[in-house]
Specification:
mainly alpha, transmembrane, Cyt_c_oxidase-like_su3, Cyt_c/ubiquinol_Oxase_su3, 7 helices
Length: about 190
């Protein structure tokens, strides 16, 4: 039995509800892709293990640290705007954007090295999944950075406040989804044997 107090104490999702529908849809797509990867891996264990060893885990780990740190910065931006500190919010978001850019550069370097070694979508089943999944995620980082850039601009322009910060939460929620997907992707593709 629900009481009025328990209903009033329920926390709404941060940001605009529409972003949560989009995030859910994105997570379903990634979940299906991860499931397909896991199934393919279970039927080609030796191929996947051998191919996985050729990946640059240092790049993958560095990119994991970069995205986790950027998510922390986005969380700090949200805390700042809730406290009415718009400039601090913008600064945290700008730092998160900088880290997003670092992620993209490092991933491009990794892609370049992969292609220089002759790795392509048609090399084998593992590399097809690796390139498809990481490029699909790469494009989500690009989209997340575009969203954060707009939110950062608005933060510096004074369009958010302690009372009106839904846009910051909305952009932040998407960015956290991008980070979460990378953590799962890193574990599946780079680490788990």
């Amino acid at each position: 039995m629900h009481t009025e107090a328990s209903v009033d104490s329920a926390q709404p999702l941060p940001g605009d509800f529409a972003i949560w529908i989009f995030i859910f849809a994105e997570l379903v797509v990634f979940g299906v892709l991860f499931g397909a990867y896991a199934f393919a891996r279970s039927t080609h264990v030796e191929l996947f293990n051998a191919s996985q060893l050729t990946l640059n885990r240092a790049y993958g780990f560095a990119n994991t640290l970069i995205l986790v740190t950027s998510s922390y910065f986005v969380a700090r931006a949200t805390q700042s705007i809730k406290a009415g500190r718009g400039t601090a919010c913008g600064n945290w978001l700008a730092a998160a954007l900088g880290l997003g850019g670092m992620f993209l550069v490092l991933k491009l370097v990794e892609f370049h090295q992969d292609f220089a070694q002759g790795i392509s979508l048609s090399t084998n089943l593992f590399y097809m999944f690796y390139l498809a999944l990481t490029f699909f995620h790469f494009m989500h980082v690009v989209m997340g950075m575009a969203i954060l850039a707009v939110v950062t601009y608005k933060a510096y322009a004074g369009r958010y406040s302690a009372a009106n910060h839904t846009g910051v939460e909305t952009g932040g929620s998407y960015w956290h989804m991008v980070d979460l997907v990378w953590i799962i992707l890193f574990a599946l593709v780079y680490v788990i044997h």
